[in-house]
Design goal:
five-stranded mixed β-sheet; 42% helix; 11 helices; 2 domains; single chain; 21% strand; D-Maltodextrin-Binding Protein, domain 2
């Protein structure tokens, strides 16, 4: 009887360990909301037993969470410097890899007359302009840089409404809470909003590059599924998915 109990206990422990190995948590920048859904879908075709759990937020806030011990296995950041800081702090299990360069766009759903450009944001019929919070969101930082480069930051500061991340900034425009917004091209290409209103890509020479990077974290040091996911992102198929969502490959020129 004792032997049977011991055997059952070993089986239960091994099953528990296997189940744990199947799952892993990916913390990703909010601009990856749609691209990461496609990456996950293609990955699970190759590894049907793996279960990636993906959470989204602003890169700066995710960085702080990981620095404070949040249980994430892989970090995809809209600013490659955040994973580099974690690597310097000894919290990673892989090198930091670039995966894309992001683009920002000016988007409006409002029925605005005339040419859509950044100068248009100063007009009286635009009362609110949505951007991600530049204090912790890389897309918000780049939006501020572009506005400053054009001498518009001080002029439209009273109109700004800040999203916690770039996805929330897009929601402000989509809901009508803001007449215009500066958001990620990767979100703009979502079929649900792509044909709503007008958008223009903001010239990349107005801001620093949105060089994005990812890293496997210390928690996933012995998790083969998490490492397989990271490897898939670096594969040709993974890179093609990001390109389809408007990202520029790191080795390509803007």
């Amino acid at each position: 009887m004792n032997f049977i109990k011991q055997t059952l206990l070993i089986l239960l422990l091994s099953q528990s360990s296997y189940a744990s190995a199947e799952s892993f948590t990916v913390a990703a920048a909010a601009d990856l909301k749609y691209a990461m859904a496609d990456v996950s879908a293609e990955f699970t075709k190759l590894y049907p037993d793996s279960k990636p759990d993906i959470v989204f937020g602003s890169s700066g806030k995710i960085y702080q969470q990981i620095a404070n011990g949040a249980p994430y296995d892989i970090f995809f950041s809209a600013d490659i410097n955040f994973p580099r800081l974690l690597n310097d702090a000894g919290k990673t299990a892989s090198i930091v890899r670039p995966y894309a360069i992001g683009r920002i766009v000016l988007w409006t759903k409002a029925d605005l007359s005339g040419k859509l450009d950044m100068e248009r944001l100063t007009a009286n019929d635009i009362r609110h302009v949505a951007i991600a919070n530049p204090k912790h969101a890389p897309y918000g930082m780049r939006a501020q840089e572009a506005l400053e480069a054009l001498g518009l930051w001080n002029k439209i500061s009273p109109k700004l409404v800040f999203g916690e991340n770039i996805a929330q900034a897009a929601q402000f425009v989509d809901s009508g809470a803001a007449e215009a917004g500066i958001i990620a091209l990767s979100l703009m290409l979502n079929p649900q909003i792509k044909n709503k209103g007008r958008y223009v890509i903001i010239p990349d020479n107005l801001h620093k590059p949105l060089e994005q990077g990812y890293v496997v974290l210390k928690r996933a040091e012995n998790n083969p599924e998490a490492k397989a996911f990271a490897a898939f992102v670096a594969s040709e198929k993974g890179r093609a998915i990001f390109r389809a969502w408007g990202f520029v490959r790191p080795e390509e020129s803007l």
